[in-house]
Structure formats: structure tokens, C-alpha cells
Fold each of these.
Amino acid sequence: MKAVSRRRFLKNAGKSGLALAASSALGKFGLAQGALRTTRVVIDSSRQIAPISPILFGSFLEHLGRAIYEGIYDPKSKFADSNGFRTDVMKEVHDLGVPIVRYPGGNFVSGYHWLDGVGPKKDRPTVLDRAWNTLETNQFGTNEFITWARQVGTEPLFGLNFGTGSAEDAAALVEYCNVAGGTKWSNLRRSHGYEQPHNVKYWCVGNEMDGPWQIGHMPAREYGIKATDAARQMRSLDPSIKLIACGSAGPFMPTYIDWDRTVLEECYDVVDGISLHHYWGNTEENSNDSSKYMAMNLAMDRQIDEIVAVCDSVRAQKRSGKQLFLSFDEWNVWYRARDGEFSNGHGKAAPHLLEEPYNLEDAILVGGLANSLIRHSDRVKVACLAQLVNVIAPIATNENGILRHSIYYPYAWAIKYGHGRALSLAPEGPGYEVATLGRPIESIGLAAPGFGDVPYLDVVVTHDAEKNTAAVFVMNRDLVKEQELEIAWHDLTPTKVLAFETITGNDLKAGNTFADPNRVVPQKLEKPAVGSKMTLKLPARSYSVLSLAL
Ligand code: AHR
């Protein structure tokens, strides 16, 4: 173990000599250097990264396992409303405030015919979904999803079938959803009882088309040409839509970066963003090493930086005035309920697939991943925790109700407190060594960031000038000891602690079940004295949030 090096501190400090400014500011505020368990940070509201996108903490619902059927839609449930929607799940998602939900896949979308899922339910065909070997009854489709989304107060992010589907099919769905009327597909929507257009703004142009597992998997150049054609057709129907090109399925792919570059060489001018996916896990390959696991959000930082570099390099090559945004539209912990029986529906409807159990260390890492998204607010404008209900999800259902898994809580805090602007920080404090992770650990898609020194505290701060609030999010990666965060407020003055909560515990492997739902839940921390200098005590193995009135 050793303190974070000067080299790393300067590197972390970012873009504009902030490290030096912060160092002298530390002196100015009279903060002592050198205590082994103390990290120091100066917060200056003029040092802004960017406004945080209101759709940074979205989620994802795929026709997979029990996400839709038995998850959000279950006409036989005692909780069902007249649409067949589970009202308990709707309330939970509404109260959570999920801003955007990606639908209907995922791998599923690459074999999905959207026409099978619209019109009178009795006429809809039952088909075999080849992505998950599952019986798909099509009783829930485009219009049901839009109705559900509006009722829970979330925005739809639609995925398009680029596997078996053509560019024409994609354009037809845009016409069905977004054109007011007077054309073939818009009239069909009206005949289905939806007079008003759905006005779906965000569209994923395919899913993981670089993956050999994907239905219709194709080479990057071919995908880029097809995406360009589809984008032009879609935009002619609705110029206001935002299109997200299908980026690499993750750093574990042998074609990582090459795929993204080639795709963007073809379609840069006609898309608005590019997708990123990544799942993490504390696997056997990782030697079940929790210290290393706690550092894995740094792999997300690195992945974002790498994809930004590709986007901007293609931009420079094209002399384009346009900058792309990043859509991290699949991110989560996922490594236990992953392969074999966990992903084979055996031709049944609503099978139990990918029902990952979550524990304390997963929740702490999910908090760290939320931190990584916040500190990349300048480029990541859309992101989706994958997924929302039952399938690798914060919320699980059974016939009697719902369960909040441990990861629910850091995700909820990100939504609740991650607004306003992300501030640029240069925290200085102790850290620990993590041996370089060999690339690739393919089964979990883990990139090898070559971590080097890992700070014990991972800190991000948001400032909402309109609401006059700030929030400090801190992951304590120290598995043994409490750590302190000394904050010097440069120009803001906290007046009141609105909340100071943590997720922690003695057992990193403890998780919530229907039988024992409260093993990992937020705990209140003793409120620190407010002032221009504040000290936070962060328990070992924790993720915490401090919400302040200014
Ligand atoms: O989210 C589960 C699956 O993970 C999605 O269907 C796919 O896009 C990814 O590989």
C-alpha cells in the first residue's frame, strides 16, 4: 500500500492544471498534508465538467426472461391494472424516477419483427425468440411499452432490429411511431387506437452487431453502410430524432476500437452518438479479489476515454463540426447468472433467465460506476443500467410483491442527487496497488486498465445552482478501515446537511432475498458539521452520498 503518486494525482487532475491550483488551495485553506486515512479535496463551483444530462441514469427492459412478462406485464397478477401492467412495479419505477428506458433489446431486438407486437392482441403471433430460446407471445409490444413508459414518467429509447431487419423496416417503425398520420404506417398506428404520434426521440441503430452471438452479425464496414442508409431514411421521416450508432460490445472484443472507428468512418455524419456496453464481476478469474473488484469502475473511465478518442479522431479526419455524444446503454455487474442454463429459455415463455443475485460489494461497485458516469458528463449523455426488472436488475418480482436488490440503492441515489453540473475535482489522498489485470478476461468482458495506484476514495461532486444544492458521492474502496474526506469549499457555503447515507456492512457477500429483504439497505451516517471546511467519515467498504443545502 502506498499513497497515490504525484504522477497519478496530476494525471487525475485533468484538463487544465487544476492539480496545481488545488494544491495551493489546500494550503490556502490550511489543510494538513500526509495523514494516511485522509483524502483532501477543494470544491470550486466554477470548475465545471459539464451539465449532467437528465437521461444519464436510465435503464433497460428487454424481452428476456421475466423482464417484461411477469416483470412489468402480468395480466394474471393480483397487482395488474386493466392493461395488465403490474401496478406495484409501476409505482416503484415511477418513484425511483428512471428518466429513460431502452426497449425491446438487447440481443432480442436483432430477430424481432415489431409488426408482430402491434394491433389486436388476439391476432398477434407466438414466435420463438432465437436470441434467448424463449417463447414470445407478443402480448406486449411497441404501443404497450409507450403506454407503460408514459404512465411511469419515463422516456422511451427504442432499439432497432439490424439483424433480420432491413433499413426499410427501421424507417417503417419510425413512421409508425412519429408521423402524425396520412401515411401507410402512421395510419396503421391510428387504426390501432393511437391517434397521437409517440414522438420517440432516441433510437439505437442496432445492438452489438460486432458480436458473433448477435443475430445478423456483420462486418463493421457493412454495418456502417447500412446504418447510414437507415439513418437517412429515418431522418427524412423525422429530422428531430437522435440516432445512436452501434459501438463495440466492449473492450474484451478483439475488434474493440477498430469496429468503432470503421463504423464511424461510414456513418459519423448521420448519427448523433455511439453506444458503449460493459458488465463487470468479481469472478474466479479475478481470484475473487474484492480490492481489485472495487477498482473496476476505473475500467469504465478508461473505456469512455478510449471511445471519446475514437470519435474525436474520426471527427478530425472528416473535418466535421459535429461532436458525438456517448450512450453507455448497457452497464452493470453481471457474472453469476450468465451462461448455460441462465441464458437458455428452452422454448418456454417467461423463463427465469439472468436473475443475478446482488450483494454488498456489487452495490459499492455500482456506486463507483455511477461516479465514473458523472465525471464524464461532458461526453456521456445517455446511459442505461442494464437492466431494470428481474433480469440483471435492481428490482425483482414474485407473485407477492417486489424486492430491492442491493444495487437499487446507489442507482437510486444517482438519479436523486446526480443533477445540475458535475464539478472538476483533484482529490489527493492515499491509495493501494492493484496488479495489472491481464487483458482480456473475456468471460466478464473486463478491460485491463493497468490500474497502478488506486485511490481509496472515489469522489464526485454535483452542484445544482437552481436548487441551490450540492451532493458528494464517495466510494470507500478500503475494505478494512474507515477513511476521511476533508472538503474545503472554495466559493460555496453549505448551510444544512439534507442527507448523509451509506451502504456498507461486515459481509461483502451479503445480499437481499424475498425471505430476507433488508440485509443490505442504506444506513444514516452522523451528520458532519457544516461550514467552509468539512470532514466526512466514510466507513470501510462503503458507498455514501451527502446531500447539502447551500
Ligand atoms: O443485457 C443482456 C444482454 O447483454 C443484452 O441482450 C445484450 O445486448 C448484451 O450482450
Amino acid sequence: MERIVIQGGKRLNGKISIDGAKNAVLPIIAATILAKGSSQIHEVPYLADVNTICSMLSSIGAVVERRNKQLIINTNLVNTTEATSENAGEMRASFLLMGPLLARYGKAKMLLPGGCAIGSRPVDLHLKGFAALGAEIVMEHGSIAAHAEKLVGARIYLDFPSVGATENLMMAASMAEGQTILENVAEEPEIVDLANFLNNMGARVSGAGTNLIKVTGVPELKGCNHVVIPDRIEAGTYMAAAAAAGGEVLIENVIIDHLKPVVAKLREAGVVVEEEADGIRIKSDGILQPVDIKTMPYPGFPTDMQAQMMALLMRAEGTSVISETVFENRFMHVDELKKMGANISTEGHTAVVQQVERITGAVVKATDLRAGAALVIAGLMAEGVTEIKEIKHIKRGYDGLVEKLSSVGADIRIVERDDESGAERIA
Ligand code: UD1
């Protein structure tokens, strides 16, 4: 199995360019189901999650073609509304096919979604919303079927501003009869990118990026061209990596506004963050101050940066308190970081990170995508060698992570290791 091996202690210097946002491109790919004709999506990163959603689309009859960073998707030949292929269970975002299938074809059947093992992650808000739009929902043996003669606009209040539910309902409402008002919705930049894509296809969506979205249904949508926004979590991860390892790194192709909470916390930790015309420059001597962090829906501090910040704060001079309010059970990286010498205790949704003298390399396991990124950051600042197992999780969300970090001076590589004998093969 492949592992990432890092020799820690190298300072990082140079430039890293950010790819298109995973969490924007996945719903946009799902939304192509709504359109007649082809859509061209640009700046599509090479990620396992992108491959998974594309193969789900292919399995229902769509024609999906990749030309470098461009995807061309034609859904005219979709011949089934049952997206129940095996890989659907691998990724929670697969459930984003439900809204578009229901809107375009009046029915859909999906497996209960999988994804990172971070809490129970139900889809009740998606289903309540579909029901409010007039769908009948039937659950059986791990699958969910929805059916509607026609969807009719409604006023829907989300109990929690769920990103996925906001996206699924926006897509379903875009072809419903009349107006839908979605209240207490998520405000993430990826929601705005999806709304822009839908509007490019001819939808009438307004208010994306605020907590109230209005959608006036239209009978037909057409394929369009779209450039995906840069990935703010990928950017934040490399900002944290540079801050942790020390050095000077320019992070290019970012939208600075999307990174405000991460920038604020890095500055509080004593990192120099300079906003430049072509990116964000991080300067760090590796000496960090403790900070407290509470994850919140956007524009609050992103839960997808919690693990990486925790890794960084292991070396801060004092005690940091991290509260996770978005997901249950999103501290699985703590046990792995402890193997590297971290002093972290957790109680419920709170983790207390205390200063330690030394962080040392160890054999650790990526338990989910961002936990994997946290281990990479810990490995960069550790003494000695860190070996990360289960890197399939990291490949779900980081395009070229090893290459990007190597290019700024990290000693990081992928090895193929025989898990039985422990012998290394060249990857
Ligand atoms: C998206 C992101 C993920 C990010 C998360 C929060 C994608 C592909 N993934 O995931 O990277 O960590 O937003 O920023 O965009 N919930 C319910 N019922 C529901 C839906 C959600 O209780 O019907 C709960 C979840 O269990 C969780 C919280 O709401 O505790 C947030 O989930 P949500 O915002 O829906 O996250 P995702 O869309 O799955």
C-alpha cells in the first residue's frame, strides 16, 4: 500500500499554486444533470472524489470526458435515475445527485451516502426539503428513493445551515414550479459558485452567499461553461504547513476574502500573513503563539481546517482550546498526533492542545481527509521520519500534495510498502 514518508525539519520556501475547489466542483458536476446539452467545467482538480462522482454520472448514462483540467459532461443520454453504483457509498457528496435527478426526471434512487468517518452525518435536512417541494420519500435497505409528479416551490427553513442540503435544494428548486425560498441556508463560497453555475445554465437563483436564497423555477436549463473557484481549504492547508515548518511561501491562485478566518487565526498565532496581488505570502520562523478556535459555518472558522490548525498548534508556546461545533466526532486525528508526542486532551466537542518540547516522527494513519492533511503538517515539523498510512483519504482532496510540498523544499515522498513484510518498493 502507498504511504507518505516525510523527513521533518525542513523549512519551506517558494510558491504553491492552488487548484479548483473540491467542494465547489462536486455539486457543479452533479448539477450538469439538470442541463440539456454539454457543460464545460474548467479548473477541475485531479482528485479521487472527482473520479467517484464522474463514474457515478457515467453509470447512469452521462458522457463524461476529461481534457486536462477541463471536464465536458453531456447528460442527454441519462438512462436511469438509480445512482446506486458501489462507489456511491464511498463519498457523502454522491447524495448531491438526488436533487438534480428529482428535478429533471421526477424520481431518483440513491444509496445512503458515505464519506469521511466524522460523525453520523445524516441527510434529514435534504429529505425534509425535498418533501416540502412535493416529493414522496421512501427509505429501504440502505437506499433512499424519491418521487414527484412535479416539484412545486415552497418556503423551507433549514434547522442548520447544511452545505449539502442548501446545494441539493437549490438544484431541485431550480426546475420546480414557482418560487422557492430557502431560509437559514449555508453561505459558503462553494454555494455561490454553484448558484453562478446554475444561473449560467439559465436558472434564476438569487441571494447565494447570504442566509436566504430565492429560486424561481424554470422549465429547462442548458449546458454552459464555468471556471471553478480556487480551493480555500487547500490554500489554508499550505498556509498552515508553511507556518508550521517555517520559511516563506507565496500561495497563488487564492481568493483572499474566502480565507479571512484562517488568516486571522494564523496572525494571532504570530505568523506574518501578507496579502499580495497574486496571492497570500506566509512568513514564519516556526515560533507560534497559542490561539483558541471555534469551528462555525461560513464565514466562521471552517471545520475543514480544524485538524490542520491543531497540528500547527502542537508547537505553540502555551495552551490552545479548539471547539468543534459543526461535526460530532471530528477529533480522530488526536490519537495519531499523540503518537508523535502531542499533548492533547479532548472532552466532548473540545480539545485542549498543550505545548510539548518535542514532536517526533512516527508511523501514523490518516483517518479522514483533513486528518491526513494534519498528519502531513505534523510530519513537516517533527524530528525524524513520519510515515502516513491510508493516504487514499488524502488523495480524495489534495491534487499533487507531495509534488507541491517537495517543490518548496519539503522532504516528502510516496513509497509503496508491503504491509505484511514492511519492505519498501519504489512507488
Ligand atoms: C460539506 C463539505 C465538507 C465540510 C462541510 C461543513 C462538500 C462536498 N463537503 O459537507 O467538506 O466539512 O460541508 O463545512 O461540500 N447535517 C444534518 N442533517 C443533514 C445535513 C447535515 O444533521 O441533512 C449535519 C451534519 O451531520 C453535520 C452538519 O450538519 O454535523 C454539517 O453538515 P453539512 O454542512 O451538510 O456538510 P456536508 O455538505 O456534508
